[in-house]
Amino acid sequence: MERFESRKRRHLELSLDREMQSTAQGGFDEILLEHDALPELDFDEVELTSSFVGRSLATPFFISGMTAGHAEAPAINLRLAKACAARGWIFGVGSQRRELDSPVDAFHEWLELKSKFPTLVILGNIGLSQAISTDVGSLRRLAKNLGADAFCVHLNALQEVIQPEGTPNFRGGLAAIERLVAELGVPLILKETGCGFSAKTLQKVASFNLAAIDVSGLGGTHWGRIEGRRALEGGDALRSNVADTFRDWGVSTVDSVISAREILTDSTEIWASGGVRSGLDAAKAIALGANRVGFAKPALQAALAGENELHAFMEKSEFELRTALFCTGSLRPSDLREFHHG
Fold it and tell me: From the CB of residue 185, how many other CB atoms can be counted at a distance below 10 Å?
């Protein structure tokens, strides 16, 4: 368990390192929104409200699961959860894998969240490798212990291959996902971890009755790079060198969202994350077809700086999105789809 906690702590440290960011772009710089010099709107009327799994929310934003399973994680997650509850953002926790091995200790990590913040919309999280090898009852307990409104299964093929302790066995993954949709008891979300979704992958799961797919595309934190650095630190030259070869591997967030809009039905929400750095990026993602937009590294960085800094980051993101809406003549985020070009 000590080694597990050490790994998770190092993941947190490296996720904030600029060198662990993909040098490939998420694609947002290539997207233009058409300016309306005469919007027939009052800025105060512009609204960001949304809904998910029957819950009303003040914004279409979410914070993507980043950290769990080590001593510093509870305080970080508590700060993020508090801010999300206050501002109407969805909050995704980091991987709950530790809870499978040490249920009592890990449970305390989540104990306060729902009791302190009953309005919080919170997402559970487990990796596909664990979803394949773990019985549904155990995963159902993870969701229940957290009080999860929905549950994420994260797909991290490249990370599992490069990670020295990885479990790169995804055989049976599609069947496991279908089983969880049918039996877990809460809505299921599929999410990548920085490598995005190709059209081919989306077609595999398009009929699965998923609540959402978080494309988590290439353009932000790259877990192949993170595991490559860890491999180097552990003297594993092979994995370190392979990680360098695959340092910009993946499908951009923009391309992932475009494919998802073409392939998925309206019953499955499209969530855009991966290299999203502003409310303007969020507006572009929504114009392309995303229903919701997420932040990982920028939110984590702000949370580590302090509660005021986190709220300032969130307020700025909201204001930027409202500005993009106003300057395109859009009353609400869904109106943006009429104003995308380029």
Answer: 14
Structure confidence by residue, pLDDT tens digits, 283-310? 999 999 999 999 999 999 999 999 999 9
pLDDT score of 25 more than 80? no
Interior/surface letters 111-149, b for 16+ CB within 10 angstroms, e for the rest: eebbeebeebbbbbbbbbbbbbebeeeebbbbbebbbbb
Give the other-Cβ count within 10 Å of 204's Cβ.
13
pLDDT tens-digit series, residues 224-235: 888 999 999 999
Q: Quick check: 180 and 172 in contact, CB under 8 A?
A: no
Q: How buried is 153 (Cβ within 10 angstroms: 0-12 exposed, 13-18 middle, 19+ buried)?
A: buried
Are residues 258 and 30 in contact, defined by beta-carbon separation less than 8 angstroms?
Answer: no
Instruction: Outline where DSSP puts E strands in the chain.
Output: 32-33, 50-52, 55-57, 61-63, 90-92, 122-127, 150-155, 188-192, 212-214, 269-272, 292-295, 340-341
* pTM of the predicted protein model: 0.93
Tell me the mean pLDDT in the region 31-59: 97
